[in-house]
TrEMBL record:
InterPro entries: HNH_nuc. This is HNH endonuclease. One of its GO terms (molecular function) is endonuclease activity. Keywords: Endonuclease, Hydrolase, Nuclease.
Length: 273
């Protein structure tokens, strides 16, 4: 049995264009988020990433960032000392005096960077230049960082009991709610793994969404101010960040065909003009 291919039918394609119904693209390709590669993204969300310390930046608010994401730092490899109980490292949320001292003493490369929202970290115990144990431990937040950021009004003059309570109740989930992980939050409200990244396809109600955007702009191009009330087919709706499933108002612009074709990665439209 022969199955008719509508995509090869000129009349069908002409009708589809009149209805402003673009073809769906089903791809699960990794979307480069905040400048991270897929390998970096996976590592940051699954145990941490070893990087050049020069790539870690201190924000105006005192927090730490790698490329365009906020991160935490912790030491992964610690030396065993049989004379006393194992001393676990701390999780750093800001560029505190401890990190400053470590960097001045050329010890900063010991840290790994992470985006994980829990306090558990993989810690390697090293003895005689060999890893003798590798296990997951729940770490405490750095107290110097708490003071730097005045987290929950943490300061040096507090009682030890009050300090201990803030440390015990500290949550990275709460921390990243106050200091969002993506510095470009207006572009990306949520980061995705390769598995959770939505397919980059138009919403099933895209025709209705597109119509509302163009009506809201009174059928006027937001780029050239052209009036398309009498030529509505030539006014499109453009996804600024290239994510077809992101129909937030800040991501949609009403653009005429010519202005739409001039947007990044839209060169294919020039051949159709």
């Amino acid at each position: 049995m022969h199955i008719f291919d509508f995509l090869q039918d000129d009349e069908f394609n002409q009708l589809r264009e009149q209805m402003n119904a673009p073809l769906l693209e089903t791809t699960n390709a990794f979307v480069n988020v905040a400048g991270l590669t897929q390998q970096e993204w996976v590592a940051l969300r699954n145990g941490g990433l070893e990087i050049d310390s020069k790539l870690i930046k201190q924000g105006k608010d005192g927090t730490l960032s790698y490329k365009d994401v906020r991160v935490t730092l912790n030491i992964r490899d610690i030396n065993a000392n049989t004379s006393r109980e194992l001393s676990l490292p701390k999780i750093h949320i800001g560029y505190c005096k401890t990190l400053d001292e470590m960097q001045r003493n050329a010890r900063f490369e010991r840290y790994i960077v992470s985006m994980e929202k829990h306090m558990n970290r993989q810690i390697n115990v090293v003895k005689d230049n060999q890893t003798v144990n590798s296990d997951e431990h729940e770490l405490d937040v750095c107290r110097n960082c708490l003071g730097l950021l005045s987290w929950k009004r943490y300061h040096g003059g507090m009682t030890l009991a009050a300090k201990n309570q803030i440390v015990a109740e500290f949550s990275l989930v709460e921390f990243f709610e106050k200091y969002p992980q993506t510095l470009k939050l207006e572009e990306y409200e949520q980061l995705h793994t390769e598995q959770s990244q939505p397919s980059n396809v138009y919403h099933k109600n895209w025709a209705e969404i597109s119509l509302k955007v163009r009506e809201r702009m009174n059928w006027q191009c937001e780029e050239c101010d052209g009036d398309f009330r009498h030529n509505k087919r030539q006014l499109h709706v453009h996804h600024v960040n290239g994510l077809k499933y992101d129909n937030s108002s800040k991501n949609l612009r009403a653009l005429c065909h010519d202005c739409h074709a001039k947007q990044p990665y839209h060169g294919h439209m020039l051949a159709k003009s």
